[in-house]
Amino acid sequence: MDPTLDYVSRYLLEEEIDELNISAFKDQADLQDIEKPFYEILGQKYPPTPNEQSASSSQSESDLSSSSSSTSKSSISINDTLVESITVMEFHRGIEEGMKFLPIMNKLSTDIKENIVSVDSAEVKYKNSAELKLVEKVDLGMMPRSKKNSICSELDIFEGPNRKISVIDSEEPITDDVYDKVLLDHGDGHLKEEIQSLRETLQLEAISGVLKEIQGDHHELHTLLIHCAEAVAIYDRRIAQELLTKIRLKSSPNGNAIQRLSSVLADALEARLAGVGSDYYRGLIAKRFRTPDIYFLKAYHLYLRAAPFARVFYCFSNRNILVAARNARKVHVIDLGIKFGFQWPSLIQDFSKREGGPPKLRITGIEFPEPGFRPAKRVESIGQRLEEYARSFNVPFIYKVIASQWESIRIEELAINDDEVLIVNCMIRLKNVKDETFEIDCPRNRVLKLIRQIKPQIFIQAHSNRSYSSFFPTRFRQVLSTYAVFYDLLDRTIPHGDKQRLLPENVYFVTDIINIVACEGSDWIEKPETLKQWQRRNIQAGFEQLPVNLNIVKECKNLVRDGYDNRYFVQEDDGWLLQGWKGRSLTTNQFRGRNITLIKKLRYANIKSRQTYTHDFTHLAPARQQLLQNLRIKKIQKKNKKN
């Protein structure tokens, strides 16, 4: 049976090849017309046909034998060429047929000629799947690439539909004066002047009527976005694409707050609908690592003049560090999420002014690893710049880098010394550590337990006072409501004529929005929590909330009142320092002390649970559950004695 099947299969294969050769010669004239332009583009000579070979052989009778042999070889090569050409044509025809079932994605182009972020505002034209041309093939990465640029090209595919982000030229010189102007405290005189200049420019724009020219329909865009998110949630492609088309026409990356936010949300919804949200987000993150630090410094400088949030963060943290290390000779600061280290030059400067001389300062910068062969490249460069600042201010300084997942860090890596005042600092970065949805043994709780084990003098933290639902339509409404506030405050505080006005949005908000809206599962890493949720975690980890220094609170309030828009506010509430815009709390600061007694912690947790949570204590360790049970038994016994 097997020899028979083998014979039949070989017979059919030979018949198929013969038919292919016959059909190839039948369509030889058409193939020549198709193939010749491609050979001309490639700079190659088109192979001669059999007729041309016979004509050339008749010209020289003396070389008849040699020409006949070359003709036979040529015919064989022509056969192979034609078969190969038809195979390629069939392959491309198959690609075109298959692409009819793929979603349409446009490509983000990158322009590095300018020093600002710019976005194409051209009208978006959606094509039917039957009209897909070579442009769509290029956008989907089907054209051949060199091995050297293949990775970057694949990442660039998902860097945002219809969005053109320009980055700072990497060759732009970075002088120390640029950093000093932004990061050092010169009595805040120059910063006050810059804030005042920004406010005056805004007033001139309001008088000239520039703001009226960019007004849009807030409610209509809001409704379209909600309906589009609901269609994306159920993967209704037809309705979602229709709504995305309307959103594109009404939104503008250079318009008012809701128009710019709608443009970003439309990109995120389109990526989620196409199923490439995670690739889109990873492409943006990879591009951030390739972007020079000066780009983020300029964004931070403009954000510092427009909004007081970062300034209050660093003032609150640095003042508490100075109080805790008032008489210390050695200070060790562990910064969870050091990022660009913008906080520490001013602290180094403050230590240099301390009576009795500066302490020996040691900073351990902890950050998530970067992709590639050098996971700590950027964090190491930050340490070099901080060492230069410490040298210029005559402050003894040691810097160490740890680039790994925070929950996997061991105490031995931190090199804790008993003769140092230990301080742990974390500014809005614990939200990027995985929560219970990833692992049963929550990484966030493990990080807090690690901090408790090293027993810092104080643990300073800042959080975004918000959380997002796992149900996508609800989550989208929460994102729309939250970031509408941020876009509104930037719209009200940065002049529309400022060429760099989009920098803060792209640095601080765009990637977070893309991750929350376009990603799902383990790729959804942007998961902040509310103040109450963080308070519960801190209590369970064994931290005691310390009272806020009222003098520091007063200083933070003065920073906000001195030049910033009067719609910003800073206030103290239950040991937390709250910041917000138009009465809405957006960020919180807090610092906590060392471990507290187990009984006190359980009683406090019980009181808090009655106020805001259920009476479920199954998340506690067995020893704590037993202690809680004993407390309840004693309470019942006391009631029985009274009765």
From TrEMBL:
Taxon lineage: Eukaryota, Viridiplantae, Streptophyta, Embryophyta, Tracheophyta
Record's protein name: Scarecrow-like protein 14
InterPro entries: TF_GRAS
Family named by the database record: Belongs to the GRAS family.
Compositional bias segments (type: Low complexity): 54-74
Region described as VHIID: 300-365
Highest taxon above the source species: Eukaryota
Chain spans, region SAW: 518-593
Annotated region described as Leucine repeat II (LRII), given as residue ranges: 381-413
Keywords in alphabetical order: Transcription, Transcription regulation
Species name: Rhynchospora tenuis
Extent of motif VHIID: 331-335
Region feature (Disordered): 43-74
